[in-house]
Amino acid sequence: MAKAITQYFKRIFDDYQVLVQVNPEDFTGIELIVHPDGKIEKTEMEFDEEIFEDLEEDEFQPCSPLEFQLLLAKA
User: Fold this and answer.
1) Can you point out the beta strands (E) in the chain?
2) Distance between CA atoms of 52 and 1, rounded to whole angstroms?
3) Global pTM?
4) Which residues, including other chains, have CB under 8 Å from residue 63's CB and lie 6 or more apart?
5) Which of 57, 7, 55 lies closest to 28 in space, CA to CA?
6) What does the alpha-carbon distance between residue 54 and residue 60 come to, in Å, rounded to a whole number?
7) I want to staple 22 with a disulfide (CB 3.0 to 4.6 A). Which of 28, 29, 62, 68 is the partner?
8) Helix (H/G/I), strand (E/B), else coil: 6
9) Rounded CA gap, 34 and 37, in Å?
10) Res. 23: pLDDT tops 80
Protein backbone atom coordinates (compact mmCIF):
# COMPACT_ATOMS: atom_id res chain seq x y z
CA MET A 1 0.00 0.00 0.00
CA ALA A 2 1.34 3.43 -0.95
CA LYS A 3 2.12 5.82 1.86
CA ALA A 4 0.15 9.08 1.95
CA ILE A 5 2.09 12.22 1.13
CA THR A 6 2.24 14.66 4.02
CA GLN A 7 0.98 18.13 3.14
CA TYR A 8 2.25 21.48 4.43
CA PHE A 9 0.50 24.82 4.84
CA LYS A 10 1.44 28.28 6.05
CA ARG A 11 -0.21 31.55 6.99
CA ILE A 12 1.55 34.79 7.87
CA PHE A 13 -0.21 37.00 10.38
CA ASP A 14 0.80 40.55 11.39
CA ASP A 15 3.59 39.59 13.76
CA TYR A 16 3.88 35.80 13.62
CA GLN A 17 3.39 32.89 11.26
CA VAL A 18 1.80 29.47 11.56
CA LEU A 19 2.92 26.40 9.63
CA VAL A 20 0.95 23.16 9.65
CA GLN A 21 1.95 19.63 8.63
CA VAL A 22 -0.96 17.25 7.91
CA ASN A 23 -0.82 13.52 7.30
CA PRO A 24 -3.96 12.94 5.18
CA GLU A 25 -3.99 9.23 6.03
CA ASP A 26 -4.74 9.57 9.76
CA PHE A 27 -5.22 13.35 10.11
CA THR A 28 -2.34 13.81 12.52
CA GLY A 29 0.29 16.48 12.22
CA ILE A 30 2.32 19.26 13.72
CA GLU A 31 1.63 22.97 14.12
CA LEU A 32 4.53 25.40 14.36
CA ILE A 33 4.05 28.96 15.55
CA VAL A 34 6.96 31.25 14.74
CA HIS A 35 7.00 34.31 17.01
CA PRO A 36 8.59 37.67 16.10
CA ASP A 37 11.49 37.03 18.50
CA GLY A 38 12.33 33.82 16.60
CA LYS A 39 10.89 31.47 19.24
CA ILE A 40 9.16 28.46 17.68
CA GLU A 41 6.29 26.66 19.42
CA LYS A 42 5.66 23.06 18.35
CA THR A 43 2.34 21.31 18.99
CA GLU A 44 1.44 17.78 17.92
CA MET A 45 -2.08 17.80 16.53
CA GLU A 46 -4.97 15.48 15.74
CA PHE A 47 -7.25 16.94 13.07
CA ASP A 48 -10.67 15.93 11.79
CA GLU A 49 -11.57 15.02 8.22
CA GLU A 50 -12.44 18.65 7.44
CA ILE A 51 -8.93 20.01 8.11
CA PHE A 52 -8.25 20.86 4.47
CA GLU A 53 -11.49 22.84 4.16
CA ASP A 54 -10.71 24.57 7.47
CA LEU A 55 -7.21 25.54 6.33
CA GLU A 56 -8.56 26.92 3.06
CA GLU A 57 -11.25 28.91 4.87
CA ASP A 58 -8.59 30.33 7.22
CA GLU A 59 -6.53 31.40 4.17
CA PHE A 60 -3.61 29.02 4.69
CA GLN A 61 -1.51 28.48 1.57
CA PRO A 62 0.50 25.39 0.60
CA CYS A 63 4.15 25.74 1.58
CA SER A 64 7.42 23.97 1.04
CA PRO A 65 8.18 20.83 3.07
CA LEU A 66 11.77 22.08 3.26
CA GLU A 67 10.71 25.34 4.94
CA PHE A 68 8.63 23.41 7.47
CA GLN A 69 11.41 20.90 8.22
CA LEU A 70 14.02 23.64 8.70
CA LEU A 71 11.81 25.40 11.24
CA LEU A 72 10.92 22.11 12.92
CA ALA A 73 14.63 21.40 13.41
CA LYS A 74 14.91 24.70 15.33
CA ALA A 75 11.88 23.99 17.55
Assistant:
1) 7-12, 17-23, 28-34, 40-46, 61-62
2) 23
3) 0.92
4) 8, 9, 10, 19
5) 7
6) 9
7) 29
8) coil
9) 8
10) yes
